[in-house]
Amino acid sequence: MPFDSQGDKWSCQSCIRGHRSSKCAHYDRPMKRIPKAGRPLTKCSHLNGVDCNCREVWAIMVPLAPGSMVCSPEPETQPVQQQQVYHVYTEGR
Hints:
The protein has about 90 residues and is low in regular secondary structure.
């Protein structure tokens, strides 16, 4: 099951309906955020009749290789020493 950077779980709709959301690996389908178990603590703060997307959020996800640097902070890099490059030209072949 894919996780996002906030730790939310995501699964495709068919795996959610089939109670297989923890084993979902369908990255080619639209994914839906899995709500936390239990009753929600608060309701949506938007007024009734206002168009909001608080209830359902969908995303397309792409599997990443383990250890990829997409979400990780960039490591501190050492300044690169500039080296002089000498070009040697020869006449003809």
